[in-house]
Specification:
The protein is α+β, with helices and mostly antiparallel strands. It has a domain of 152 residues: Sulfite Reductase Hemoprotein, domain 1 (2-Layer Sandwich). Helices cover 28% and strands 20% of the residues. It has 16 helices and 20 strands. Strands 1-2-5-4-13 form a 5-stranded antiparallel beta sheet. The radius of gyration is 25 Å and the shape is globular. InterPro entries: NIR_SIR_4Fe-4S, NiRdtase/SiRdtase_haem-b_fer, Nit/Sulf_reduc_fer-like_dom_sf, NO2/SO3_Rdtase_4Fe4S_dom, NO2/SO3_Rdtase_4Fe4S_sf, NO2/SO3_Rdtase_FeS/sirohaem_BS. Keywords: 4Fe-4S, Heme, Iron, Iron-sulfur, Metal-binding, Oxidoreductase, Thioether bond. It comes from Ruania alkalisoli. Catalyzes the reduction of sulfite to sulfide, a step in the biosynthesis of sulfur-containing amino acids and cofactors.
Length: 592
């Protein structure tokens, strides 16, 4: 570690020399225990220190595709060996899904083969969330024909399908790749999907279009063996929108658009963000990158992670742990000296967002047309819905759809005269362009319905909670959206630490002393936004847990208490203190 000094330890009377000439004076001090290697390739060598590292070195995860096509799709699920099934399949977007009927209390006690079904979740990789209506229709067809009409929009701008059989995977790949889509490195210890501004290239207030940089990253580096064995997953975000709409603070590397006072439009470089059970917000390197430099800088950061990332322990293998030890100054130095070969200019931070970054509602494009952003219930859609969205868009002359990091969907290029037709058509499909505050700002992970790690159900719980809160808080006019994030386990796929109200799934005791599904509550988290200067993690209150059944009542109670105790009590609009600010200063009793 840098920036640390070693202090001399106080003398041990059992080993120090004394003036009496006793036996203690001749006793030798115990040698220091050698430091255990962290598995950093450039420091410790490449010898695997755990089973995950061993199977990745034995055979690159990208190589499993040939076996899927030539062996497993023909011989069936039972022919798949463990390291492929539970490891390398992820390099192609495939996880086994949870067997129905296994309650959350058994999640931590059963082995993977006992938890899993003979079906897969398949993640379609959609960089920047950008789809054509033709691509959306192909995904819809796969869903309805080969995945029981399942489809979820994720908070990584992907679409996840369920109930996929290995026998159908080659046909799914054939259909996706025929329209320029795929599942390459959608999961695994690899560079995951690149988050991009959902309004790249069309927003009237865009600083610069990040699409060329995203496309170049993928052209050069997607599916290349040199980056297909990273210590853990590697997440990227790129935006040129003033709403900072890609949750950049919680990615391993991120590029945030800004106007440099001397160099013009470019990107502020961030590294080392990530949540899960050990959340850490990313940090600025203080460096400015031009659009042309973004792929090289991205590649340099990815190589640092590959070469210096910690590999011995899986729970310490994300880039955020390396950054915590190095600090941004050393990280930038290594990036420039060892990987770029040149210095990046210093740059200022991007200004605070001045507009919302979720893009919900009707907004003008820079070409005079409009885009319509609509909210499903926590990303849950279906193949039939996706096909209908494609048809609706094409009926008004649009061929472009975008997905957002907030589980929302946008229809681009809508003529002004067709805006109402599109908004009403989306509403008929369960996609609301003028949603309630909670419908707009609630997200949820997959939950126990399909996920082997989950302890509680999330999607339906969130949907029921939204409906109940709309009824309970109907008397509150102009309530500012409060982010409500539900996660089925501690891993924070739904970003619970960065929500106004974050909910971590666990089993809790109800009033009758029974163990039931519920949540630990985090309060006051959030990312930089038009109402928040900078990102911050939520606060936990000792003993603050809520059952799933009592969730709507709790959210109503804490929301009304916030409204009662904050400035501007006669209104719920922008003049009021933010929920996050109140939650961090409020007495614990006020939060229960």
């Amino acid at each position: 570690m840098t920036g640390q000094t070693t202090e001399a330890a106080p003398a041990d009377p059992a080993t120090s020399t004394t003036s009496t000439g006793s036996a203690a004076s001749t006793r030798t001090a115990r040698p220091a225990r050698p430091k255990r290697p962290n598995g950093q390739w450039k420091v410790d060598g490449t010898e695997p220190l755990n089973h995950n590292e061993a199977f990745k070195q034995e055979d690159n995860g990208l190589n499993v595709r040939e076996r899927i096509e030539q062996v497993y799709a023909k011989e069936g699920f039972d022919s798949i060996p463990g390291d492929d099934l539970h490891g390398r399949f992820r390099w192609w977007g495939l996880y086994t899904q949870r067997k129905p009927g296994i309650d959350g209390g058994r999640t931590a006690t059963l082995e993977p083969h006992e938890l899993e079904d003979k079906y897969f979740m398949l993640r379609v990789r959609i960089d920047g969330g950008a789809l054509t209506t033709e691509q959306l229709r192909v995904i819809a067809g796969i869903s309805t024909e080969l995945a029981r009409d399942s489809a979820d929009i994720t908070d990584r701008q992907n679409i996840q399908l369920h109930w996929v059989q290995v026998e159908d995977v080659p046909e799914i790949w054939r259909r996706l790749e025929a329209v320029g889509l795929g599942t390459t490195e959608a999961c695994g210890d690899v560079p995951r999907v690149v988050l991009g501004s959902p309004v790249a290239g069309i927003a009237a207030d865009e600083i610069l279009d990040p699409s060329p940089a995203i496309e170049e990253i993928n052209r050069r580096y997607l599916g290349v063996p040199e980056l297909a064995n990273l210590p853990r997953k590697f997440k990227t975000a790129v935006t040129g929108h003033p709403g900072q709409d890609v949750v950049h603070e919680i990615n391993d590397v991120a590029f945030v658009g800004l106007e440099h006072p001397e160099l013009g439009a470019g990107f502020d470089v961030w590294v080392g963000g990530g949540l899960s059970a050990n959340p850490r917000l990313g940090e600025r390197l203080g460096a400015f990158a031009t659009e042309e430099q973004v792929p090289d800088v991205w590649h340099g950061v990815a190589q640092i992670f590959r070469d210096y990332g910690y590999r011995r322990l899986r729970n310490k293998a994300r880039l955020k742990f390396l950054l915590a030890d190095w600090g941004p100054e050393k990280f930038r130095q290594v990036l420039q000296e060892e990987y770029l070969g040149y210095e990046l200019p210093d740059g200022p931070p991007a200004p605070q967002p001045r507009v919302p970054g979720d893009h919900v509602g009707v907004h003008a494009q820079k070409d005079g047309r409009y885009y319509v952003g609509a909210a499903p219930y926590v990303g849950r859609v279906s193949g039939q819905v996706l096909n209908a969205v494609a048809e609706l868009a094409e009926s008004v002359g649009s061929q472009r759809i975008r997905l957002t990091p907030h589980q929302k969907l946008l229809v681009l290029d809508v003529p002004e005269a067709a805006v109402e037709q599109v908004t009403e058509g989306l509403r008929a499909l369960g996609l609301e362009a003028d949603p309630s505050p909670f419908r707009r700002s609630t997200i949820a992970c997959t939950g126990i319905e399909y996920c082997k790690l989950a302890i509680v159900e999330t999607k339906q719980t969130a949907t029921d909670t939204i409906d109940e809160l709309e009824r309970r808080l109907a008397d509150v006019p102009d309530l500012r959206p409060l982010t409500l994030h539900l996660n089925g386990c501690p891993n924070s796929c739904a970003r619970i630490q960065t929500a106004d109200i974050g909910l971590k799934g666990q089993l809790v005791m109800n009033d009758d002393g029974e163990q039931v599904p519920g949540f630990q509550v985090h309060l006051g988290g959030g990312l930089a936004s038009e109402t928040r200067d900078e990102a911050g993690l939520g606060r936990t209150v000792r003993g603050l847990k809520v059952t799933a059944d009592d969730l709507p009542e709790y959210v109503e109670r804490v929301t009304r208490r916030y409204l009662d105790e904050t400035d501007g009590a006669d209104k719920a609009g922008p003049a009021r203190e933010s929920f996050a600010s109140w939650a961090h200063r409020a007495d614990e009793e006020a939060l229960k």
